[in-house]
Every structure is written in structure tokens, then in C-alpha cells.
Amino acid sequence: MRKKRQRRRSADDRHDTNRATPFLEARGEILDVLRGKVVIGHALCNDFLALGFVPPGGLIRDTSSRLFKEMCGFHNRRLVSLKSLSLNLLNRRIQDGKGGHCSVEDAQATLDLYKLVEEQWEQIMASRSKDAPSETDSTPSLAHYMQDEYWPDPRSRQRSVPLL
Q: Which portions of the sequence form the region Disordered (predicted)?
């Protein structure tokens, strides 16, 4: 008699997706939280791409930036992992276990990396803001770009090629 082969379970199987917040609702809540806030993270472009959001550059503190690569001596590397930065600059091993990434551990390492250069980074940002256009210019504000006209509902998109 042949044993019935069990299907491997994935992380998605462990969560009740029927009770999950719909993407557009979650996205709206996330954007509300982020509005006007400084965001510290690693390779944030990936997260913002998933949200379909382009934040103002002055509010981003991304530890995947050139500053951290240079501190490690990785001048020629395009990307440096958070794991590598943490080991080289904080002398801390992260993402080593079988479980892979721990979001809390990653967030703590990212914040600790930022704290290494916080004063320098904020001085750079302050000098850039002095050179930035004043509030009286005609540049649209972030609130202007957060209006629905710039964020079409993905369900309303028309297919350009008819299905057969």
C-alpha cells in the first residue's frame, strides 16, 4: 500500500488570509502613517515599489546608501546586504538562524547603523534643505500627490490585449 504524500506547507498556509486586510486598504493605512515622517530602513526602494509610492527624498534614511558602503570599504559593490553591513560596522551577526530574517532584528540593526552616522546625515540633509525651493514656490506638495488622481485603483485598469 502506497503512503499518501503530504503537501509541503508554506508560510502562507499558516495564516488565515480570509481575515487579511485588503491590499488597497492596508496601503492607504501605511501611507497615512508614513506621511510627513522620516523613514529609516534598508533597501527601502523595494518596499516603496511594492506600495507604488515615491516618497520625498528628504524623508528617507536608507542604509543601503553609498555612505555605508564606503564605511565598509565596499566602494565597487552595487549593493551591500544588511547582514554584511551589520557584521562589518556593528560587529553583529544577523539573519544567521534557520528561520532567516527576523524583522525585529533587521529593524534594530538598521536603526543602529543609522545611529552611527545620524549627526553627519542630518547635517547633510539640513544643508540640502537650505538649498531646496522655498514653501512659496509653485512646486506641488506631497499632499497634492497623495490625491486619488495619482493613485488609480488597479482593479479599474483596462487590458490592452483582449483575452482569447
A: 126-164
CATH topology classification for 22-128: Nucleotidyltransferase; domain 5 (3.30.420)
Written as tens digits, the pLDDT of the chain (164 aa) is 555 555 544 455 556 677 899 999 999 999 999 999 999 999 999 999 999 999 988 999 999 988 888 888 888 888 899 999 999 999 999 998 777 789 999 999 999 999 999 999 999 889 888 776 554 444 445 555 455 544 445 444 444 343 33
Closest CA to 72 of 122, 44, 113: 113
Whether the predicted model's global pTM rises above the 0.70 cut: no
Do 146 and 35 form a contact (C-beta atoms < 8 A)?
yes
Classify residue 94 by burial, with Cβ atoms within 10 Å: 0-12, 13-18, 19+. buried
- Grid cell 534557520 is found at 98
